[in-house]
Amino acid sequence: MHEIIREFCGKKWLSKKHTIRIESNGYREYVYLDNPLVLARLAGHVKHNLGQPIKGYQIFMRGQPNDYPGMVPSIFRNIPKMSNNYKNRVNAYNDLIHRLREMKNLKRFKGPIGGALLQHYGIRTPWIDLVDNLFIALWFATRERSQKEPFRYVKKSEKDYGWIYFIQVEDPPNKKFAQEGEGIITGKRTMWCDLRCYQTSLSLRAHTQHGIFASRNGWGETNYDLDEFVVATVKFPITSAFTQTSDFNIFSMGYMFPSPYYDHTYKILKKGEVSTLIYNTERDNDLDEGELGSIYKYVSYRKQYVI
Q1: Which of 26, 51, 80, 229 could pair with 47 in a Cys bridge, judged by C-beta atoms 3.0 to 4.6 Å apart?
Q2: What burial class does residue 268 get, using C-beta atoms within 10 Å of its C-beta: 0-12 exposed, 13-18 middle, 19+ buried?
Q3: Can you say how many angstroms the Cα of residue 115 is from the centroid of all Cα atoms in its chain?
């Protein structure tokens, strides 16, 4: 936890009026608070002090209904020890992007940006998905997804608490490190991209969810965890004060996960030929079915139809 956060939590005027304290669960220090406005103020404090692009940094957020050790991209999770799964997964991931690009001759699936886009639709990648909107982070922190397709996000998580993470990435002011034509901002230790700027609006889910992705620069078998870039973590009780935004249509399932009618990329990826391509790519790279993920199907909570 950054010292800036400790100073914020130590302000006497704040602790007298509100519940805010630093706690630990054994592998992570975090701020516990119970007021959305205090969370918003903390978010502003972090952005203002640690996320100024003019100083070469950005702060983005991530919401989760559960806290886990580390900040590990999906493709690197649950890799069996003493196996070749790391190498096989990376090879399969790169292979999938290449094959999909050949199958669907669309620029949106090209290169690293194309790989990052696939994570929005269920494929495991070397990227961590982030947002720059506190409301979107809260949406994912206060909702749980069912475990079987078609997936559904419940209106309110059955967990007692939600989690918000603030992650600092490099944003070189001169932008000479940006990969030309890709939109990936590359620093000495981190890389990130804003899909809303570099993906067509036809990939609508990237826009409704404020899709930003980050990874370590030069990630490899032993250095893919982004946990050291988490400058602040917040734990908060899931109460109506944090979930009442679900009353607005803009935070409904249908908005956060647009149907194929609106999301052209989702319409393409839902086709059976893409599922077959994913399966064959896993098989050709000695992976079990599902290790690369799958194109997730969701059901709208309000209208009860599969999207």
Answers
A1: 51
A2: buried
A3: 14
Tell me the HSE value of 275 on the side-chain side, using a 13 A CA sphere.
9
CB burial of residue 123 (10 Å; 0-12, 13-18, 19+) = buried
CA distances from 114 to 110, 111, 180, 258 (A): 5, 5, 15, 19
Instruction: Give the pTM.
Output: 0.90
Please return the burial class of 181, using the count of CB atoms within 10 Å of its CB with bins 0-12, 13-18 and 19+: exposed
Who contacts 184 (Cβ-Cβ below 8 Å, separation ≥6)?
112, 113, 178, 191, 192, 193
For residue 84 the two structure tokens come to: 């070749």
Q: Do the Cβ atoms of 122 and 274 come closer than 8 Å?
A: no
Span 218-243, average pLDDT: 90
CA end-to-end distance (rounded Å), the chain: 39
Residue written as token pair 């130590």: 10
Q: How many CB atoms lie within 10 A of CB 27?
A: 10
Work out the burial of residue 147: count CB atoms within 10 Å of its CB; fewer than 13 is exposed, 13-18 middle, 19 or more buried.
exposed
Q: What is the pLDDT of residues 178-193, one digit of tens each?
A: 665 578 999 999 999 9
